[in-house]
Design a protein that fits this description.
mainly alpha, 16 helices, 0% strand
């Protein structure tokens, strides 16, 4: 996509970036689980989750309209609640991006298992994960053009494959398949809601590098809302065709779309969908690996919440120190969890960020309401905006119920390890070289010890 201004990313490329960061492994791997949990009601649940995500996306859109700085969630929190909470949310946003990348890498390796059964072995799985991280790291270090090209290519690939599945698959839809009865409990619907929410990640990372977009204050709010609505439509249509083709057989397949297409078009049809699925998963990882390092580099560059060297960029604008730190966190997560084990971790971190952005929006809207009321200019739109922000916060509280104790422990330990490392980097600016060596040595021993314990623990589900 051509850029009309040096260093800026076009509207179309940003839109494709948003699609790519949201449409990933979920729509290819989870329809069977969703149908098992909620049956045909899974279609309605997708729309319900989309409404919840729209409320959250509205908060980001409203904040992006008021503030144009890089950093997204942490920057908005910083503006409304100060340095401490801004730093905390910046850290959680960075970990959310790393968890999303690790989840997609695990999903990619899981998708390859039918062709490469040895990926079920822990050692092979880990080496393959390391190889994928190195590939993503290389693409990121090549600069914005390489990342944008890879992002656009993977987006077009996934949309083409999903479009092919819908256009051809709709001729094999059997109305009777929608009559399949599935007995579900409330906890099943809860589980389905959580999984569908996982299928809507990425929107919060669109404003992370706001300064790279053309007219970000005007375009970002439109992009955020447009991307969420587009993805919801893609999910509902694709899920509907999959149910229509397979009925209650859909919950027997690890990759339902590929299996459904293979039933009608043989091995070639299955291979086409599998290639699209792997390209889709890789696309999310590429787009998230592009934006996530900007979170930690913006903490250093925007408000000096981290040492300046973390925000150092190459000549082509790549924050290479932040990128290497991100790769290290992703490696830890890939070594310690598989696809389904990483989903609750990713959701927990996301909920913390979304909740603070919702509270920042409520605070901003409340101040705006008071100002307008004093001027006698208050109208219904102001009330609706406040209600949307409150709904977003309530949705975050609802989603917090799905976080497992194991996910809390894993993320808590991860946060402590990262905070220890960042504190060493921060304090290095004020102390003597000998103190730096001693402190860094102690921190390194602690981190290595922690990594050793994690690596000894086999990934769940492998």
């Amino acid at each position: 996509m051509p850029n009309h201004q040096a260093g800026k990313i076009s509207f179309a490329s940003v839109f494709l970036f948003g699609i790519n960061s949201m449409v990933g492994s979920g729509i290819f791997l989870l329809p069977g689980v969703l149908f098992q949990d909620a049956g045909n009601w899974s279609l309605a649940l997708i729309l319900l989750v989309a409404l919840a995500v729209l409320a959250m996306a509205y908060c980001y859109a409203e904040m992006a309209h008021h503030f144009s700085g890089n950093g997204a969630g942490w920057y908005y929190t910083y503006k409304e609640f100060g340095r401490f909470w801004g730093f905390e949310i910046g850290l959680f946003t960075w970990l959310q991006g790393a968890a999303a990348i690790a989840t997609e890498i695990a999903a990619f390796l899981r998708g390859l298992r039918p062709w490469l059964p040895r990926l079920s072995e822990i050692t092979v799985y880990r080496w393959a994960g390391l190889g994928m991280i190195l590939i993503l790291l290389t693409i990121r270090l090549l600069g914005k053009k390489a990342s944008t090209w890879a992002n656009n290519f993977s987006t077009v690939l996934k949309l083409a494959v999903l479009g092919l599945f819908v256009v051809l698959g709709i001729f094999y839809v059997k109305p009777g398949n929608f009559n399949a009865s599935v007995h579900n409990s409330l906890s099943d619907f809860d589980h389905a809601f959580m999984l569908i929410f996982f299928m809507f990640p990425g929107f919060s990372f669109l404003p992370v590098q706001a300064s790279s977009f053309h007219n970000s204050k005007k375009n970002l709010p439109k992009l955020l809302i447009g991307v969420v609505i587009s993805v919801a439509v893609i999910y509902v249509i694709t899920m509907g065709v999959a149910i229509g083709m397979l009925g209650n057989r859909i919950d027997n397949a690890d990759a339902p779309l590929a299996w459904a297409f293979g039933q009608q078009f043989g091995k070639l049809g299955e291979a086409v969908i599998m290639i699209g699925m792997l390209g889709s998963i890789a696309g999310v990882a590429i787009s998230m690996f592009y934006s996530t390092p900007y979170v930690v580099s913006s903490l250093a560059n925007e408000k000096a919440l981290l040492p300046k060297f973390i925000g150092i960029k190459t000549k082509n604008g790549v924050p290479y120190v932040a990128t290497l730190l991100t790769a290290g966190i992703v490696l830890i997560l890939v070594m310690t969890g598989d696809y389904l084990a990483l989903i609750p971790c990713s959701i927990m971190i996301a909920v913390v960020q979304y909740a603070f952005v919702a509270m920042a929006t409520i605070k901003l809207e409340f101040a705006d309401l008071k100002r307008r009321h004093a001027q006698g200019k208050i109208d219904h739109i102001d009330i609706y905006e406040m209600v949307l922000a409150v709904i977003a916060l309530l949705c975050c509280l609802f989603l917090a119920r799905f976080v497992t104790p194991l996910a809390i422990v894993d993320i808590y330990e991860m946060v402590l390890a990262v905070i220890a490392l960042l504190c060493c980097l921060f304090l290095a600016r004020f102390v003597t070289p000998l103190a730096i060596e001693i402190t860094a040595g102690i921190a390194l021993i602690g981190v290595v010890s922690y990594l050793g314990q994690l690596i000894k623990r086999p990934p769940a589900g492998n």
